[in-house]
Each structure stands twice: as structure tokens, then as C-alpha cells.
């Protein structure tokens, strides 16, 4: 695969001619919409046609999160690139009663199994407002009856529905629940392993052991990494819905997380979180009032084309961005492209990680999948 950055005067036809490709190949691979315009600075993935092996020539465990309402065509096109499909998500009550997703999850389990991918039950402590609720964590983990009920229902549901693993995604855990959470994860791992099922844990992006903050203090990297079969480092959301405009996953900060994580967890148990979305902020940013709009990676590139602006690239963060004005309002957009994804793949190889985990799979980024198989060999096994 070649990554080509669009220059002044380029068109799909001129790029195709220069590289000996058909325009249709470029259009399909990069999901370029009619009338097939391009943005200055846009990164395109170009097939070489040579059938070369993967750049890094090593296995890669690839998984991603999907809601039950994922578009069927997006799911089917993504599954060949996935070692595991994490269905988002099951919740639970303070009494430890498991709460299923609002829509049936059986179709996703069946689709994953048919594709040779591992269906994974994702467990989250969502409250009635749809946000992470640390009260639920405290209530369920510190009451012996509630904890045992939750463990039993998790195992029974996973077996009944055909899941091959469970992913625990607890966020904003209270510092006083740190040990209880680690003990719960270890107990769940023991139960699942007896039945041949796997356990993974999503971890906040810490850079040192005693990092302050509600996102970090309740997670013990060493204990959780020892109990789990693998972990996901949630290396995204530096730029988030309510933050000031900035990269979602700046690579220089991602590297700092990895440098700490590999001190506590074996690298071959670590998957790197990869964002598959963009944020569009209005300017000027007003703390407490501004709210970024979420859109897909391909949508972000298409928007730059539609409004006629140049896509820039932050070399430190290894992330593309652009500014535009609409209806008199200035905007700034940060997103991912094949350049930023290639930089993450290089980091995964450098640190010898197990692979990567996508948040989330609801929008198709075809060039990203093709770049993945041009970089690694996807493994279906841990």
C-alpha cells in the first residue's frame, strides 16, 4: 500500500494515471463520494497491486466494539479484519442483575461466529442516564450476594448465547473500590477460564501508577493485567465532546501511556485503542458551553472536500485536522486518516503489542482495514 497526500491540481484521474491504477480502485478504497472531488492535503491509500506480504510480518489481534444496531453491510465488511467483536453492551443493577442491550445481540454473535471471529460480551456500569455510574460498581462489587449474582449471570449468559469472551469496561471507579475491582476481575477470569472463555479489561490511559483523577485511581494496571487474558488501553479521548479542540489521540501522549503500561503488563497482553471517529468543534471554545459534534472519519474528509479547505497534519500528534467557516461560524475538526493509523501500527510493532482495539465499528473506514492487512497478519487466536 502507498499513502499519497493530495497536492494542488490533483484529481482522482491524474493520481490513478500517475500510479497505474484505475480511478475506480481509488474511489472504492477511499470511499470518495460523487462527484469524486478531493481536498488538498487529503491522505489517500493506493493499492500497489503487487500482492506483497505484511510490512511487519507478525500476527495482530484485532477487535472492535459495535452496538447491536450496526448496519449489516458495515458489519459484514468489517468482520474479515476482526479477531474479535465486542458487543456493546450489557449493564447491571446494584443487586448484580445483568441487564441486556436494548436490541437483540444474537445476530452479532452469530455473524462473528460465522466469520471465525470471537464474539465478546462487553460489561459496563451504565446508570439510567446512560453514563458510567461508579455507584453501581461500588454497590455490586462490595456486596457479596450482588457480586456472586453478577458473576453467575455473566457466565450463564455468555454460555447460553455463544459468547467466547467477556470484556469488562468499568470507568470512573472510586479509589476506595480499587482492590474490590481487581478482585472481581480475577474472580471472573477464574470462572471464565474453567469454561474456556477469555477475559479482557478496558483500561484508562495512565502514564504512572499513582496518577490522580477519578478516571485512573481505581485501576491497578499490574493486578488487572495479571488477571486478564488481554487489556485494551483506551488511548483516545484527549480531545473529547466537551474539551477544547485538540487531537483525539495524540501519538506523543499515546507513547507515554505505552511506556508506563509495558512496565506493569506484558506487551503481548496489550491492545492499543484506536479511535474511528472525528470531532467538529465550534470556535471560539467556551468551557462549559461548547460541545463538539461527532462524525465518521470518511465524513470528516468529505466535509473538507465539500467546504473546500486544506487538510493539515500535526507532525507531533501525527493527526490530521482542518478549519472551516460555515454560516459565519468557525469550526475546527480533528480526525484520523491512514497516516495517523500507520503511525499507530508502527507503535504497536515497536512495543511488541498483541494488537489493537477499535472504538468503534459503527462507521466503515475501508482504507483503514486495508492498511491493517498490509501491515500485519490478522490472527483469530490469542
Description:
The structure is a single chain. This protein is an alpha/beta fold. It has two domains: 1-52, LysM domain (Membrane-bound Lytic Murein Transglycosylase D, Chain A, Roll); 59-281 and 333-379, Glycosidases (TIM Barrel), CATH 3.20.20. It is 35% helix and 23% strand. An eight-stranded parallel barrel has the order 3-4-6-7-8-9-10-16, surrounded by six helices. Helix 1 packs across helix 2 (23-30) and helix 5 (134-142) packs across helix 6. The longest helix is centred in the middle third of the chain and has 18 residues, at 144-161. The protein is globular and about 70 Å long. The mean pLDDT is 96.
The CATH class assignment of the largest domain is Alpha Beta
CATH superfamily of the largest domain: Glycosidases
SS class? alpha/beta
Q: Sketch the topology as an H/E string, one letter per element.
A: EHHEEHEEHEHHEHEHEHEEEHEEEHEHE
Amino acid at each position: 500500500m502507498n499513502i499519497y497526500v493530495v497536492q494542488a491540481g490533483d484529481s482522482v484521474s491524474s493520481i490513478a494515471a500517475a500510479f497505474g491504477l484505475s480511478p475506480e480502485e481509488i474511489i472504492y478504497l477511499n470511499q470518495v463520494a460523487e462527484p469524486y472531488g478531493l481536498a488538498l492535503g487529503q491522505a489517500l491509500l493506493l493499492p500497489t497491486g503487487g500482492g506483497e506480504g505484511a510490512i511487519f510480518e507478525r500476527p495482530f489481534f484485532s477487535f472492535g466494539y459495535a452496538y447491536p444496531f450496526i448496519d449489516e453491510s458495515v458489519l459484514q465488511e468489517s468482520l474479515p479484519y476482526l479477531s474479535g467483536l465486542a458487543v456493546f453492551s450489557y449493564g447491571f443493577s446494584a443487586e448484580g442483575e445483568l441487564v441486556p442491550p436494548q436490541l437483540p445481540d444474537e445476530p452479532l454473535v452469530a455473524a462473528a461466529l460465522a466469520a471465525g471471529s470471537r464474539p465478546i460480551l462487553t460489561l459496563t456500569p451504565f446508570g439510567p442516564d446512560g453514563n458510567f455510574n461508579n455507584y453501581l460498581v461500588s454497590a455490586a462489587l462490595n456486596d457479596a450476594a450482588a457480586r456472586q449474582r453478577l458473576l453467575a449471570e455473566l457466565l450463564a449468559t455468555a454460555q447460553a448465547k455463544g459468547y467466547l469472551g467477556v470484556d469488562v469496561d468499568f470507568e470512573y471507579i472510586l479509589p476506595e473500590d480499587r482492590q474490590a475491582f481487581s478482585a472481581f476481575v480475577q474472580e471472573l477470569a477464574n470462572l471464565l477460564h474453567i469454561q474456556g472463555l477469555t477475559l479482557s479489561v478496558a483500561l484508562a490511559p495512565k502514564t504512572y501508577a499513582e496518577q490522580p483523577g477519578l478516571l485512573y485511581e481505581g485501576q491497578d494496571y499490574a493486578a488487572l493485567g495479571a488477571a486478564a487474558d488481554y487489556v485494551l488501553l483506551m488511548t483516545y479521548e484527549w480531545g473529547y465532546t466537551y474539551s477544547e479542540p485538540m487531537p483525539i489521540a495524540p501519538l506523543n501522549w499515546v507513547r507515554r501511556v505505552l511506556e508506563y503500561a509495558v512496565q506493569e503488563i506484558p506487551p503481548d497482553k496489550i491492545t492499543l485503542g484506536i479511535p474511528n471517529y472525528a470531532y467538529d468543534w465550534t470556535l471560539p471554545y467556551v468551557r462549559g458551553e461548547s460541545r463538539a459534534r461527532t462524525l465518521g472519519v470518511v465524513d470528516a474528509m468529505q466535509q473538507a472536500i465539500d467546504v473546500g479547505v486544506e487538510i493539515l497534519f500535526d507532525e507531533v500528534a501525527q493527526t490530521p485536522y482542518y478549519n472551516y467557516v460555515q454560516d459565519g461560524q468557525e469550526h475546527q475538526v480533528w480526525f484520523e486518516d491512514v497516516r495517523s493509523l500507520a503511525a499507530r501500527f508502527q507503535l504497536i510493532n515497536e512495543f511488541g503489542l498483541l494488537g489493537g482495539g477499535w472504538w468503534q465499528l459503527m462507521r466503515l473506514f475501508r482504507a483503514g482495514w486495508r492498511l491493517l492487512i498490509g501491515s500485519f497478519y490478522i490472527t483469530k487466536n490469542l
